[in-house]
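Below is a filled-in request sheet from our internal design queue. Each sheet records the structural input a requester submitted and the sequence that came back. We keep these sheets so that new team members can see what a complete request looks like end to end.

REQUESTER: design group, bay 2
PRIORITY: normal
MODE: inverse folding
CHAIN LENGTH: 216
BACKBONE (tokenized):
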């Protein structure tokens, strides 16, 4: 039987902040715009959206918004809502490392250097891929500088995803972007030099088609 709308999307967005002390943090250049565009596209298509965001952007109207800062907070939010969603889209740029022992007070400046020990953060996408239920769809992003398709396809398989969206660092902060999209059992699709809103609309339509197929 075909899967019926609305799909409940769980979408993550933005670059996490990993605090060194109460006022300083390690982060990345992700704006969160792609995740927010996906949330808007899903809402416009009549779906339910829970948006877990580490971005300072204004949440799209109609989303169930969950604000987070760190990778650990994002992981906790994903774990909370994962079993309730039909599709998880991990559009967030989650930090790979976080300070092992954040200072409880502001670190004072000094003439010498400062060494910060980092530890790996949890792999949220891999966690979800291991725990998804029957028809649940998981979509990941791959940002690569070289061998884009090869690296993205490797991630698709290793993380047990239904779809991977691959792009290069040139998309960060750009008004228009190009991405490569691949489903688990489909060929590569190139979406080139269009707005992030146009990319988001196309991705949501592809997920809708995937959901119907999964429900048959």
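RETURNED SEQUENCE:
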């Amino acid at each position: 039987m075909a899967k019926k709308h609305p799909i409940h999307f769980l979408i993550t967005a933005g670059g996490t902040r990993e605090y060194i002390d109460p006022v300083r943090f390690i982060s990345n250049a992700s704006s969160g715009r792609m995740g927010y565009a996906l949330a808007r596209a899903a809402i416009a298509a009549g779906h339910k959206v829970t948006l877990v965001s580490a971005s300072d952007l204004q949440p799209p109207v109609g989303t169930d918004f969950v604000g987070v800062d760190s990778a650990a907070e994002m992981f906790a939010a994903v774990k909370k809502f994962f079993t309730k969603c039909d599709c998880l889209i991990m559009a967030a740029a989650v930090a790979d490392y976080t300070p092992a022992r954040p200072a409880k007070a502001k670190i004072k400046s000094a003439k010498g250097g400062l060494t910060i020990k980092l530890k790996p953060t949890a792999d949220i996408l891999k966690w979800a891929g291991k725990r998804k239920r029957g028809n649940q769809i998981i979509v990941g992003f791959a940002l690569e500088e070289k061998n884009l398709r090869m690296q993205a396809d490797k991630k698709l398989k290793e993380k047990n995803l239904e779809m991977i969206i691959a792009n290069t660092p040139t998309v960060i902060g750009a008004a228009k972007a190009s991405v490569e999209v691949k489903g688990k059992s489909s060929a590569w699709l190139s979406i080139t030099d269009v707005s992030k809103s146009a990319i988001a609309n196309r991705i949501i339509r592809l997920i809708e088609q995937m959901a119907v197929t999964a429900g048959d």
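SHEET NOTES:
- Helices lie at 33-44, 71-82, 124-131, 148-158, 196-215.
- The chain is about 30% helix and 25% strand.
FILED BY: M.R.
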